[in-house]
Every structure is written in C-alpha cells, then in structure tokens.
Amino acid sequence: MGGMLYKLFASASLLTLGLYHLVCTFFHVIKSPQSYAAKPFYPLPRVSGNNNNNRLQKLPLIILILSLSVAFLHQTLISFYSDPLVKGSTPVHRFSSLNSAAVFFLFLLVAVYLLLSESASSLIPLPSDLLFALASGGFFLHYSAATASAAIQTSDLQAHCDSLSARVSALCSLLCLLLACRPRLFVADAALAASVCLQGLWQLQTGLSLYVDGFIPEGCHRLLDVSGGVGGSTQCDIQESKLRAVSVLDLMFTVHVVLVVILLFVTYTMVAMAAGVRRTGSYEALPNNSSDSSNHIQMKSLTGTQA
C-alpha cells in the first residue's frame, strides 16, 4: 500500500508540474513570440493592486519544493528498511535508495536557491541557461539511478518499469541541455513539459501494474519474503507470462505517449482560445506607414488601369 501511495503522489506532482509548465510555455509563445525564451520557472501572473495574489506568485515553486522534500525523505527512509527481494539483498537496496535520495536532494537544492534568489535581494538569480544545465545534470543522474535500480530488481516487471522511466529521464536531460544552449527553442521547451507529464503518467501506471491486484498482468503475482515479512513488487514465474507482461507494459507506455500528445494538442488549443487567438483566412499584409500606403494604393490603381 505504501508503494502505491507514493506512486500516486509522484504521479500527481509530476503531472501538475508538467501541465503548468506546458500552459505557461504555450501562453508566452502565443502572446509574445518575438521575445519568447524558455524559463525553468514561470511565476503566477501578477495582479495589480492585489497583494495576496502577488505573494502567491511563487506558489508553483513552493509546491515543487514540498514535492521534492517528500520524495527525498521517502527515499531516505526506505533505505533503512531491509529488502531481501533485490539482487544483493539489503545492502544493495540501501545504497540504491540513497542514490535516488541524493538525486532528489540535488533538485531540491536548485529549487530552494531559485526561491531564495527570487525572494531575497541579497542573492543573485542564476541565469536560465545555467539552471537548465543543472537540471540536465540532475535528470541524467536520475536516469543513471533508475537504470541501476532496474539492474538489481529480481522482479522483471519492476525492472522494465524502471528502465522505461530511465529513458524518459534521459530525454528530459537532453531537452534541458538543448534549452541551455538554445533558450528560444520552443519545441524543446514544450517537449520537456510533455516529457514530465509522461513521467507522471508512467509513475501511475507503474504503481498500478506492480501493486494493485486488478492491474497485475495475468500469470504474475506479488513477491513476498515470508521469513522477513517483506512484500515486494510483481514477479512472473513462467517465461511466457513474463514476455506477455512486458509486451503489455510496452503497449501501455505507447498509449501514455499518445495521451500526452493529445494533452499537448488540447492544451495548446485551450491556451490559444484563452489568449484570444482565432483562426483567420489568408490576408495581404498591410503596409507599415502612410507613404507605403499611398504607394500601395497607386500600384493597385496602375495595375487596374493596365488591365
């Protein structure tokens, strides 16, 4: 039950963060495409004359810090639990959990510094390209930690889930690196937000496939260490059942990718409608000044006379 609750929390946090970043990215590129540049953090809009709203501008960043704190504490606490159901038993589980906790602590340090630099005038805010570079390193470390976690699992399903999660983290790392070098690359910014949403959906699917009996693939069962009373994730004893379960997970991952693409289309449409953008037919560009306007009209008249 604890594993499923944590997966639900991680899924909700990542989906909220990714969707918020996606909405802000679309809004800024639609409203001011010429001055658009990717930002690691978008504060809530400022409302003139509303002090309470202005104080809540950093609410998304505060929620991110709280989520990272919970993730860091969770990985730290479970490192003290025994887990004989992984390769290498409890010592390997302990170091693997501490490795994940260290990655979350890195993200937490960056988020806390960003909050303090936005609030206190004594701290100089870090440039956006440096923040994206740090995020790229953090996502790469998470990719490394997830890959190492997949390697020590005796559960083939959990190993495959961790492997797919690692690939999403590797994609996020690459996109952050691109944004550090090309901050005006809108496609990379939108893809980064979509990848975070995909990671959130995959965390939910991982929890359902490993810890909820109704979603466990056919022919698989929960692991249990009877002597230690330790429950693990899902294991398939028969090779045919394992291959079928892995194929089901691959299919579900593709379904989640399709859902994220649909979410991207819907979000862009709704943001464009909220920003007042409407689809129009073809038009001829208007001249910029009055002299160009008179020349434009004269050319039109001359063309009509010649015809």
TrEMBL record:
Pfam family name, one: DUF716
GO cellular component: membrane
Region called Disordered, residue ranges: 287-307
Keywords recorded for this protein, A-Z: Membrane, Transmembrane, Transmembrane helix
Residues spanning the signal sequence: none
Transmembrane portions of the chain: 61-81, 102-124, 130-152, 164-185, 251-271
Membrane topology: Multi-pass membrane protein
InterPro entries: DUF716
Localisation per UniProt entry: Membrane
Family per record: Belongs to the TMEM45 family.
Protein's name in the database: Plant viral-response family protein
